[in-house]
Amino acid sequence: MPENNPRISDDSLSEDTIGTRRIYEGSIINVRVDTVRMPNGITATREVVEHSHAVCIVPIDDGGNLVLVRQYRKPAEEALLEVPAGGVEEGEVSEEAVLRELQEEIGYTAGKLVHLSSFWVAPGWAEEYMHAYLATELTPSRLDADEDENILVVRVPFGEAVAMFKTGEIKDMKSVAAILLAQPLLPKK
Fold it and tell me: What's the CATH number where 108 sits?
């Protein structure tokens, strides 16, 4: 493997797509196989999961509690404790998706949003790009939840939430990332 050289341009790493075919079309994801030409001329295939951009939210109530959701996740075969999250719908900007997801999942809206960061969820095989937000000044406001979601709302003091991913009680990576990104912005308790 060549030594990392920050002066090497990204162009020397890029791959040209020379063919693509969709092999699965679903309601949430699609899967395609791209044929690419690498910079060294070799042809390779890349399997790509197509998924909308998404948001994840660190909602903090007036008492300094993090409002989490617990829901069963079939791929993990267990109920996971997570920050609220969901897809950005077509025509929606990420802030609108944040407010909608908060209302659908925890029954609140936020008076203040702070964009924490944006990141690729699994860039080796998925197009999903996640926007993380801190949400404060919460007030009750409910939208109907998605029919296929069964969610329990759980409040945890923020400091305990940080400890919970260290002990494995929170194992969802977007939640770990969002909580760590929000931590410096919140008062220590």
Answer: 3.90.79.10
Residue 104 and residue 59 in one domain = yes
**172-183 pLDDT, tens per residue?**
999 999 999 999
Structural domain for 86, as ranges: 54-185
The total number of residues shown for the chain amounts to 189
**pTM of the predicted protein model:** 0.90
Q: What gap in Å lies between CA 146 and CA 104, rounded to an integer? A: 7
Known catalytic membership, residue 147: yes
Catalytic residue among 77, 78, 90, 147: 147
Based on the structure, what is the number of domains in the chain?
A: 2
Shared domain for 19 and 43, answered yes or no, is yes
Cα dihedral 89/95/99/105 (nearest 10): 60
Q: If phi over 0 gives left and psi between -120 and 50 gives alpha, with beta otherwise, what is residue 180? A: alpha
Burial of 122 (0-12, 13-18, 19+ CB in 10 A): exposed
